[in-house]
Amino acid sequence: MQRSGFRWVSKLMLAVGFVSMGCGQVCGEQPARVPLLRIRLYNLAGISARSVNRATGEAHKILAASGVETVWEQGDVNSPEANYTDQTAGIVWQRSRDHRECLTVRILGRVPNQYYPGALGFALPFGKDGIHVTIFNERVERFSKIALATFPKLLGNAMAHEIGHVLLESCEHSSEGIMKARWGKTDIQTIAARYLEFTEDQVGVLRVNASRRATIDEQAFMIRP
Description:
- By secondary structure, the protein is of the alpha/beta class.
- The chain has 6 helices and 7 strands; from the N terminus they run βαβαββββααααβ.
- Strand 2, helix 2 (49-65) and strand 3 form a beta-alpha-beta unit.
């Protein structure tokens, strides 16, 4: 599996989305360029390429449903960025917006039980260097064995949840949707059948903050009615 620079974002998924919307284009109009949120993924857990593709596809769909288009790239697991977290990011008086255009996600293998106990991952919304989102692969795998949803679906929803914290610039949870602190049986059934969603109030904030980080992909076009 290639490392640095490999962009696997579901270009096919994006293309399908663009085609399905093509009927609404007014004759003679130029298609609008789409702002894309770049997400760099570090697979430190050694997950198979197939599972990673399926999981990032799930996260992509969840974010796209809220109006946030993403392009994913694979990062070098030996890079300094992949192995660093900004420990000052949780200190309230030092919090300020991170101006990086790329959002970073890391998937770890096994971690001690006392490390964020019971959590599938954590986010550093105000991290200015290193990793924004960390996912605990072993815990997601363990959860998938007792849940009704598959490992890639759970991993994709877990990534979208933590990315949500970064884009919402908050560690707070909601009483419904993907940003709940704990997913119950009904939530898992929703993940298995489709995916969890952000609430209407969260969607607006997601779009604003994603647009602030986004770049324009010259190769991707969204046909607008």
